[in-house]
Batch of 3 targets.
Target 1
Amino acid sequence: MARNARGGSRTRVQLAALAVAGLFVLLGVLGFVPGVTTDYDGMRFAGHHSEAKLLGLFQVSVLHNILHLGFGLVGLILARRIAGARLFLAGGGALYLGLWLYGLAVNQESAANLIPVNDAANWLHLFLGFGMLALGLLLSDRVGTGGRLDTPFDRP
């Protein structure tokens, strides 16, 4: 069983938040790695003119990568507590669903596409939004606690 900073065990919601946060940190770092990010020399700080694509699919910019890194670091901090893990997953899921709506509404060739987003990113944001929201709201053995498994087999 995983241990937290105080020597206690981490809950499943905390472990999920750590995994998701770690993924965001990894994506943020990989966005700055030539080869993993294609057309790296075409990366811009922000906006739809950035030609760089993470894994050749997801349009990224320096700002986009910094946002991934920051979001992941915030998640790592929040995952230290059950309530923080839930907030990161559920709140972050809602945020990503909002980003998905933004991606659907914005003209991808306009200056309003600041982050930037493309069709592949929109699908990813939808998947991340629902996945994080589900983990944050449902990953609990006892509703409202994010607690550890409490089955008849675990009782003395």
Target 2
Amino acid sequence: MSGPETTEAPARRQTRQRTAVLALLEQQDGFRSAQDLHALLRERGDAVGLATVYRALQALVDDGLLDVLRNDDGEASYRRCSPVHHHHLVCRSCGTTVEVADAPVERWAARVAAEHGFTDVSHQVEVFGTCAACHAAQR
């Protein structure tokens, strides 16, 4: 997650759909697309439309409850993450995701922004690679 501290917005009404999406994401290990989540919800018997899943995901992102990650094709994937600022290591093969905090990255972002006269800066750093398990399976 990234971004400056924000003032707390008024509490959003928690809908059945948002509750179902959040509960499902709490059971997932990696990032999942809206289409994946929609299919999993339907398999569980939750009658919810894809557009509703997208709206629920956006509301949960806006509320700071989910992280969103865009792949090389621009597709968004979502994950329930810790509320503190962090970055991700993401396996390209299996989607395993590890949250990492790194003070040097934070210092670098602040320094580069200051050098160019930028203020109110936020950043997002995602590192993609192959996890140890997938690498071992490829050998």
Target 3
Amino acid sequence: MFGTGRILGLAVALACGAATSQAPEFAQQYRQRLNGALHELRLVVSAFDADATRNNLTRERAIVVYEEAGSDFLRDRATSVRVAIGRLGDLERQSAAFDEASPVLRPLIVARSPDGPLLQGALDDYEPAVPLTLHGFIWTGIGVLFGFSVIWLLGLLFRRKKHYPAHNLRV
């Protein structure tokens, strides 16, 4: 009834569908970590800004004071503050992209420019979920189509050509 090739094709397509069905859930878990990181970075930067303001300094001038200090520790702190402020900006842009994107496109937001520590944390703690949303079903369908396409292309590459016996045709 079904040949080995068709069974293999169906298995690959279903495996691809199962894998891609997890993209929306992974994006959701990444987004939750993103929002937590944003909250914490905003607290850190706000505290730095408040300290600078109390000392009649702008944020930039306070960083320069650290950089010009004779202490390696304070110069390192200046670098840390600059990194934190830059990362906060990057995460805010990514959060805005999540807010603007439809749920079906959110996995692409993660794929486009993930934050390394957030991505690693999401991967470490990821728990698969059954896709019961429309965007989950769309990603499942994409995976199934991808799997069928891969098997079809491999079938084209490895298909045996049929050899027909030469006939002596007399005209």
